Amino acid sequence: MSERAAPFYCPYCGEEDLRPSEEGHGAWECAGCNRAFRLKFLGLLVRGVQRAGHEGDERL
């Protein structure tokens, strides 16, 4: 099993100085804005991904 992906930047201030938090799996701390946040994968969407220019794209 591979490691989980890490966030590239803080969702609140955009700073890139992030560290894993001691609060547990998926928890991160931002040194820029002094906030802590948690990331969680919820699952795959039933409808899947639609791409522009493909069948079923109603924007055309």
Description:
The chain has 60 residues and is mainly beta. It is built from no helices and three strands. The chain has a three-stranded antiparallel sheet, with no helix packed on it. A hairpin with a 6-residue loop joins strand 1 and strand 2. It is elongated and about 45 Å long. The model has no long low-confidence stretch (mean pLDDT 83).
Helix/strand layout:
Elements: E1 18-20, E2 27-30, E3 36-38
Antiparallel strand pairs: 1-2, 2-3
Overview features:
0% helix, mainly beta, 60 residues, 3 strands
Strands of the biggest beta sheet: in what spatial order?
Answer: 1-2-3
Helical stretch tally: 0
Low-pLDDT sequence parts: none
Record field, number of beta strands = 3
Q: What is Rg?
A: 17 Å
Average pLDDT, all residues: 83
The proportion of residues forming helix, as a percent range, comes to under 10%
User: Biggest β-sheet, characterized?
Assistant: 3 strands, antiparallel
Strand percent estimate: 15-25%
Indicate the structural class: mainly beta
Shape: elongated
How widely separated are the two ends? Answer: 41 Å
Elements, N to C (H/E): EEE
Summarize the structure.
This protein is mainly β and 60 residues long.
